[in-house]
Amino acid sequence: MLNLISERQLADPQDIEAIQGEHNLSGESVNKLLNAQGVLDTASQLEVMAEYLGTDVIDVSAIEFSDELLELIPAEIAKNNHCIPIGVDGETLHLCLVDPLNPTILDDLAFQLNKPLQVRIADPAAVQKLIDEKYSEEEESYQQLVDAFEASKNAVSDEDSIAAKINKLRGRDPSGEVEEEAPEALEILEEVGDEAPIVRFVNMILYQALKDSAADIHFEPFEDTYQIRMKVDGSMKIMTPPPKELAPAIASRLKIMAGVNIAERRIPQDGRIQETIAGLELVFRMSTLPTKFGESVVLRLLDSSNDDLTSLEALSIPEKIDYSIRHCVEQPNGVFLVTGPTGSGKTTTLYACLRMLNTVETKILTAEDPVEFPVEGIVQCHIVESMGMSFAKALKSFLRQDPDIILVGEMRDLETAAIGIEAALTGHLVVSTLHTNSSTEAITRLLDMGVEPFMISSSVNGILAQRLCKTICPKCKVSNKVTPDQQKMLRLKDEEVTGDLYYGTGCDACSNTGYRGRRGIYEALVMNDEIRNLIADRTPALELRDKCVEAGMQTLRIDGLRLMFEGTSTFEEVMKYT
Ligand SMILES: [Zn+2]
After folding, report:
1. How far is the CA of 476 from the centre of ligand 1 (A)?
2. Distance between CA atoms of 201 and 254, rounded to whole angstroms?
3. 508: CA distance to ligand 1 center in Å?
4. Rounded distance from Cα 564 to ligand 1 centre (Å)
5. How many whole angstroms from 482 Cα to the centroid of ligand 1?
6. Which of 1, 202, 295, 408 would staple 432 via disulfide (CB 3.0–4.6 Å)?
7. Over 50: is that where the pLDDT of 179 sits?
8. Chain-centroid distance, C-alpha 261
9. What is the pLDDT of residues 290-349, one digit of tens each?
10. Rounded distance, CA 100 to CA 92, Å?
11. Could you tell me the distance, in angstroms and rounded to a whole number, from the CA of residue 498 to the centre of ligand 1?
12. What is the pLDDT of residues 55-70, one digit of tens each?
């Protein structure tokens, strides 16, 4: 540029030299310096460039940048070469460059775009601004993240850089398998998860998911890459991968948002992310899975209209029971049973579990009579015994389909139970229901069917018994003291009466019933060695039950009392169901 000006004697040689010096020193663009120091204004500079290149000066603010136009130069190329398309003339693509005088850029571009190019001249600052504006936020955030990371990598001596912090973590974790986290790991993870570029990057991914109506987002660490994929209309869309080294920072960010323990990187965790993005309230279910190369994170965008039906959290399951359920179903194999009479919400609970486990990495097959909740991503089969499609038959064919998880609507006969248990013993998770009143009775029922005790003791992970109690209408709720009769009927000692009783007097809101809605009560039997031995020894039902309670199992009655004393349900409901 300066040469051109000098040749044309448009400025004093001393001024030109001064600007050359300052440009070398500060790196500030020659165009800006010329303008700022009043040597040559922008308009004149543009004229000089246009004349030199045999083209003209245009006003980019007058151009309408349609998507079709912008797509003529892919975002990545536009960003890297600081150029933007402004129109086409036959085969020739017209474009503006931030640095039109650099001959190599134009050659590279012509090669990359594989078409003839015509440069037009416009204010470099305006062109750069347009590139920043017109090419999507996605590219920008990616670029910012990559830039921030690269910059911090070059400054490894800087203790505060993202790269330095992550290196500290990696130092203790050379095999990719975390043995014992040092105390400061938590702090480091928290810090990197709060770094501005990481926060922006994650927000951008969530925004993209919203824009594309993605069903779920997968963050997957591999040996050399960190892959991010979104499931849009049933197919996977791969995003530009960020530097692999940032994987722990991104996982930390997601865990912070979901409110789970960020220091825990060895066991799977579940949480919920609630974010307002572009004015919309979004809820994602987050689950983490430790893998050989780091934590894999899956976000599932919850469909709020459907969520109430099937999310484990929406069922208001007490924390201890929730933990027991997750413990049983997050194992790669074994049997998890839910028991209770018809209408006790067994299927809803099982579906909440499946929904939690339903990721693209997992193949889930169900045999149901009938299919109650259609769920995307799960292969569901309708059982019609009269047509010869029995549970047992479906199960046999399932095993040839290589599933990870199998739902059997009900274990109603020996054949079905035997095949289900067999499947559990050969590396599948099998979830099913049984019509029994308590968790321990499920064991007795299986024995009565003719299942061998050792088959039960070696395959069952746990059994959940449940009931649905009606909940008190909040509009007409009143309280009463516990009467001596009631206390006697509940067989409670004085110190076990921990509050008043509540009921609804009846109002318009509850059609004078005093009740609105229902809530589950639960009893979870989680297997341990002692219980396995008792089952293998054919311990009688009542004795088995006592031992389970001794081992810490809370009975349906205990959970019912909780609902009663907290004023959620009534004495009558608890007596009826427990
Ligand atoms: Zn009411």
Report:
1. 4
2. 11
3. 6
4. 17
5. 21
6. 408
7. no
8. 15
9. 888 888 899 988 754 444 445 676 677 888 899 999 999 999 999 999 999 987 888 889
10. 17
11. 25
12. 999 998 888 888 788 8
Q: What's the 560 CA to ligand 1 centre distance in angstroms?
A: 21
Annotate 379-391 with b (16+ C-beta within 10 A) or e (fewer). ebbebeeeeebbb
**3-7, 20-24, 25-29, 88-92: least confidently modelled range:** 25-29
Calculate how far, in angstroms, residue 524's C-alpha sits from the geometric centre of ligand 1: 32
Reported as a pLDDT band with limits 50, 70 and 90, residue 176 is very low
Our separate counts of H helices and E strands in the chain read: 25, 18
Tell me: the pLDDT tens digits for 110-123? 888 888 999 999 99
Question: What Cα–Cα distance (Å) separates residue 274 from each residue in 122, 302, 553?
Answer: 44, 10, 33
Please give the distance, rounded to the nearest whole angstrom, from the Cα atom of residue 505 to the centre of ligand 1: 6
Sheet of 226-232: strand order equals 235-238, 226-232, 216-221, 294-301, 280-291, 269-277
The vertex-457 CA angle with 452 and 460, nearest 5°, equals 110
Tell me the CA–centroid distance for residue 569 and ligand 1, in Å.
Answer: 13
Percent of the chain exceeding pLDDT 90 equals 35
Q: State in Å: Cα 502 to ligand 1 middle.
A: 12
CB under 8 A, 24+ apart: contacts of 23-32: 29/124, 30/1, 30/2, 31/1, 31/124, 31/125, 32/125
Task: Say how many Å lie between the CA of residue 470 and the centre of ligand 1.
Answer: 12
What pLDDT sits at residue 388? 77
Residue type, 200: R
Which SS3 state, helix, strand or coil, does residue 551 take?
A: coil
Starting at the earlier edge strand, list the strands of the sheet with 117-120: 83-89, 92-97, 117-120
Displacement of CA 16 from its chain's centroid (Å): 58
Residues whose CB is less than 8 angstroms from the CB of residue 224 and which lie 6 or more positions away in sequence, other chains included = 244
How far does the centroid of ligand 1 lie from the alpha carbon of residue 317, in Å?
Answer: 24
Structure tokens that stand for 175 in this block: 């095999």
Element (H, E) at 408: strand 405-408
Beta-carbon neighbour count of residue 13 at 10 Å?
10
pLDDT score recorded for residue 305: 40
pTM of the model: 0.50
Q: For position 187, what pLDDT does the model report?
A: 80
Beta-carbon contacts of residue 445 (< 8 Å; ≥ 6 apart):
434, 435, 436
